[in-house]
Amino acid sequence: MSKYHVNEKGYYGPFGGAYVPEMLYPNVEELQQKYLAIMQEESFQKEFHDLLKDYVGRPSPLYHAKRFSEKYGVNIFLKREDLNHTGAHKINNTIGQILLAERLGKKRIIAETGAGQHGVATATVCALKGLECVVYMGEVDIQRQAPNVARMKMMGASVVAAQSGSKTLKDATNEALRDWINNPVDTHYIIGSVVGPHPYPDLVARFQSIISQETKRQLIEKTGRSNPDYVLACVGGGSNAAGMFYHFLDEEDVKLIAIEAAGHGVHSGESAATTALGKDGVLHGSRSILMQTEDGQVIEPYSISAGLDYPGIGPQHAWLFRSGRGQYVSITDDEAMQAGLLLTKLEGIIPAIESSHALAYLEKMSFKGDENVVICLSGRGDKDLDNYMKYFGF
Ligand SMILES: Cc1ncc(COP(=O)(O)O)c(C=O)c1O
C-alpha cells in the first residue's frame, strides 16, 4: 500500500486512528480484525460484484459531456453515479457493508444520513436482506430532504430525528454512535462516508473504489489513456471523492481536486469549508481536520446541500490535503446552484446539489484545451427539486 493509504495502525500520516469509548472497543476491534479477510473471501467478492451489476446497475457510464466540454474548452467526462439504483454513489458502500454485517452475524442495522441518500441506500439493502433498520437524521435535513424520508419509511426503516446542535449530519452521527454504544452486540453501524474510527474510512473507501476502477478502464476505451489530467469530486465526509481518487492516488501526474461547500462564503460564518477553516482534532472517532473554536468546540457547519453540511472530512482527505497530494477548494451555495442549472440546460442532466459543487469549480480552472477532466457526478437531483425550485423560483 502506498503512503496515501491507511497503515497497519489505522493511520494516514498523523490522521485516523480509533478514538472510541470503551463500550465500543469490542465492536470496532472485531471489525478491524475481520474486515479485510471477509472482503477478500471469494464468495463475498462474487456476491458484492453480482449485486453491483444486477441490482445497482454497474458499471456506471463514463459520459463525454460534449456541450459542457465545449463551454469550458476541455474534454469533460462525467462518472455517472447518479444513474445507480437509489440515485447516488452511497449504494456501493451499503451493499458492501450489509454483506459484511451478515457475515458478522448482525441482525440490526443503524445509519446516519444527511442528504438522505445514505439513509435510503441503507434502508434499501436492509429491505433486500430482511434486516431491521434505524436511520438517524437531523431534524433540519428531514425537512429539506422530504422525498428521501418517505423512501426510507416505505422500505420499512425507522427514521429518528436528531434534535441537537444544528440538527444536521454531525448531530445524526452523534445519535447513531450513541445507539451503537447502547446496542453493541446485535447491531452493525453502516457509516455512510470515509469517516469514523478505523477501519471505517478504509473499508468505505475500498467499497467506493469501484468508481475509479471502472473509470480507468472506461478512459482507455474513450481516450486511449487510463489516466486523465484532472479528477474532481465534492467532499462532505469524502466517500465519493475517496472512491473517485482511489486508483489514481499513486499516479502523481493526475491532479486530484476536492471541492468542499463554502455555503454563504468561506468567511461568512455560514460554511462547511473544513480545510480552509479547520484545525486538527478528533471528531466521530478519528483524528482529522475539523471546524472548531479556540477551545475545541465543534463549529456548526452550513451548506445548502445537506450532504456537504459537515464540519469535518475523513482522515485520508486530511492527509491528502496536508501532504499536498490533493488540492482542496470550496464553492459557495450560489456558485453550485448556477452550475447545477447549467449542466441541466446543456446536457439534460439534473445533478444533486452536492455534485453541483464539483461542477462549479470548472469556472475557476483554466485549460490548454486537450486535457481530459473526470468529474464524479455523485448523485441525481431528484431529491433536490424542491430546493432548485425555491432558489430559481420555477
Ligand atoms: C449525491 C451526494 N454526493 C455527495 C455526498 C457527500 O458525501 P461524501 O463526501 O461521503 O461523498 C452526498 C451525501 O449525502 C450525496 O448524497
- What is the number of E strands? 14
The total number of structural domains is: 2
Strand arrangement across the biggest beta sheet: 3-4-14-9-10-13
CATH architecture of the largest domain: 3-Layer(aba) Sandwich
Bound molecules: pyridoxal-5'-phosphate
**CATH top level of the largest domain?**
Alpha Beta
Binned strand content: 15-25%
* Dominant shape: globular
Structural class: alpha/beta
How many separate helices?
A: 16
CATH topology description of the largest domain: Rossmann fold
Distance between the termini: 50 Å
- The value of Rg in angstroms is 19 Å
State the low-pLDDT regions, or none: none
- The secondary-structure element order is EEHHEHEHEHEHHEHEHHEHEHEEHEHHEH
Mean pLDDT: 97
Task: Please estimate the helix content.
Answer: 40-55%
Main sheet? 6 strands, mixed
Organism: Sphingobacterium griseoflavum
Subunit structure: Tetramer of two alpha and two beta chains.
EC number: 4.2.1.20
Family: Belongs to the TrpB family.
Give an overview of the whole structure.
It holds the Pfam family PALP. Its EC number is 4.2.1.20. Helix 4 runs parallel beside helix 5. The protein is of the alpha/beta class and 394 residues long. The protein has a 6-stranded mixed beta sheet with strand order 3-4-14-9-10-13, with helices on both faces. It contains 16 helices and 14 strands. Pyridoxal-5'-phosphate binds at residues 88, 114-115, 117-118, 193, 234-240, 307-308, 352, 354-355, 378-379.
